């Protein structure tokens, strides 16, 4: 898909709009259906929350289900959730800001900024930072592994373990690459590639990645409910719903109707690929500011939205530099991302005419197809 320049949007003042339009009854019914016991997700999605922002800045927040299956408490309106791989959009913006300031170029090799660091070992011996560019990391054409080798048995055995970014990278460098960097028409999603981008960003900026994202993105556009958890932070700020995993037996088989609470864990296992936490409305504010040109210069935003084919994603989706291009069922184009952290599944995007939707549910494993279908419906709605 061709890159798109920044679309004219409502002014920054619209960020403070406090109007509370009536809920769209059709969208509320669709959200209720996702969490209905015995419904489309077999009752494995306890709760859902969504924020919709119209082009004029009007915001409507929706909830459904329960926020805690033990107490049956309500889902908090616009509560905090782990936004997981939506973090990649923030990392991409940080990298593109450095590019816009002339501190790096997208076609620089990784070697230029981290000399001698990226050398594969064992099965990953073919990995070499001299043959890998910043752009390839951003759009998942670097060949870095898709695997997360430090969690072979899922999150539960390591939920309280803290991981340094270099530890994550070293584990990935021992995994065989999926293909040669930049190989024609080859694409493979890689969390490890974004962990590496986080290290590149730190080196070029001369500051920790969390600080760069906080200063250059979060504080710049006034996101009050978005943050990058610090070392050792296993909790989620309040208010928030609980997050769940589908329970399994001793053989790893799902136990019908049973859930395990995984709200509290150390997200450092995801690092720059998926560590952040935010409320749905704040993620929408980020998307609006990004599209309005408040975070990137027009050239860098256009680069971000130059997308390529992404095998394994829905047929109408393509991938740019840390952002997904989504051709919706109504024919409208939207840009955003998604994230699956243990306990939370989220989808977010903004249409080219400025309708932003962020949807989150409290189980990252259940009902993914149904969640995507409803997300498309919410973006295509007009209220």
From TrEMBL:
It comes from the Bacteria. The keyword Hydrolase applies. Residues 40-367 form the Beta-lactamase-related domain. The keyword Transport does not apply. One of its GO terms (molecular function) is hydrolase activity. Keywords: Hydrolase. This is Serine hydrolase.
